[in-house]
Design brief:
By secondary structure, the protein is mainly alpha-helical. The protein is built from 4 helices and no strands. It has a domain of 82 residues: Arc Repressor Mutant, subunit A. InterPro entries: HD, HDZip_class_I_plant, Homeobox_CS, Homeodomain-like_sf, HTH_motif. This is Homeobox-leucine zipper protein.
């Protein structure tokens, strides 16, 4: 089976599409270089809302979006990311507690083994 030949042009270099669009508002990573961060007031409001309830119902999402001047999708993504960070911290705390408990049991076991060897 014969493969179609690649056409080459002396006028057009083979640049990736994102480099050809010089008037685009995206950078080479496909991101908007003017992406704005949330203000400290917006973050504080979102954190307070998260502390009240980690799940976000549609009404609360719309209310927060209106109050903070953000898109509902931004609110949803922020909550999703915050839940992921929260879950990671929860796992860290659980690991620390279990490790502490294990260390206590391990020391007790070692102590009992020493007592058995002495008797």
């Amino acid at each position: 089976m014969k493969q179609p030949a690649m056409q080459t042009s002396t006028q057009h270099t083979m640049l990736p599409t994102f480099l050809e669009k010089s008037n685009s508002s995206m950078n080479i990573y496909g991101q908007d270089p003017k992406k704005k961060r949330l203000s400290s007031e917006q973050l504080e409001s979102l954190e307070n809302s998260f502390q009240e309830e980690i799940k976000l119902d549609p009404d609360r999402k719309m209310k927060l979006a209106r109050e903070l001047g953000l898109q509902p999708r931004q609110i949803a993504v922020w909550f999703q990311n915050r839940r992921a960070r929260w879950k990671g911290k929860q796992l860290e705390r659980l690991y620390d507690a279990l490790k502490q408990e294990f260390d206590v049991v391990s020391r007790e076991k070692h102590k009992l083994q020493q007592e058995v060897l002495l008797h």
